[in-house]
Write a structure and sequence with these properties.
With 187 residues, this protein is an all-alpha fold. Helix content is 58%, strand content 0%. The longest helix is centred in the middle third of the chain and has 21 residues, at 67-87. It has one domain (28-183). The N and C termini lie far apart (58 Å). The relative contact order is 0.17. The chain has helices at 2-18, 51-64, 67-87, 96-106, 112-123, 129-141, 149-152, 156-160, 173-183.
Length: 187
């Protein structure tokens, strides 16, 4: 009997919600790219390219069938997003990393997700020649210098009008980047 009441209550809630309107609100600049770098090599990805910029690069490489470059830009996109998580104070903004990743992979051409996965597998494990070359290139570029507004504007602070730049006070860029490369990428 309890199971039937719970089922009836769930059905009633679902029916009541069916007429509700859901409105998605975005703050200007939320997940926004500022530069379209095209399909570039990781060594050409300047420190000012943000994760959304790099996402456009991943898409360009996918369209060109350059899956090795696409996966390396995707990894760099993730590294810079993890870096931004460390420097953006608004915890609700941190999910921007996951949303951006989903947007990029969902926008790949037909069969692209499988091709990107295959390129990940070919990238190799920690310590592989390709991993080492990637780490060398990323370290040479130094800490990211892009504007983290793409993430800051994704959080509730952007809607609540919280002042300031949205960054963690006393953030140390070089130390944070070193930690991301060491802990996340195992460089």
């Amino acid at each position: 009997m309890r199971g039937m009441l719970a089922l009836a209550a769930a059905a009633g809630l679902a029916a009541g919600g069916a007429g509700a309107q859901v409105r998605n609100q975005d703050a200007a600049g939320n997940l926004a790219a500022t530069v379209d770098p095209g399909c570039i090599a990781v060594g050409q990805a300047g420190a000012t390219l943000s994760p959304p910029d790099l996402g456009l690069g991943v898409q360009a490489c996918a369209r060109a069938g350059a899956w090795d470059q696409a996966v390396e830009l995707y990894i760099l996109m993730q590294l810079r997003a993890v870096y931004d998580i460390a420097r953006v104070a608004d915890i609700s903004a941190h999910q921007a990393e996951d949303v951006l990743s989903m947007q990029v992979t969902e926008s790949l051409p037909r069969g692209g997700q499988a091709r990107l996965q295959a390129a990940f597998e070919q990238f190799g494990e920690t310590g592989s020649p390709r991993h080492k070359a990637f780490c060398t290139a990323v370290k040479a570029g130094g800490p990211p210098q892009h504007d983290p507004a793409w993430m800051v504007r994704h959080g509730m602070g952007a809607f609540l009008g919280e002042g300031g730049d949205g960054l963690v006070p006393g953030f140390r860029p070089r130390a944070a980047w070193t930690a991301v490369l060491r802990d996340y990428m195992k460089c």
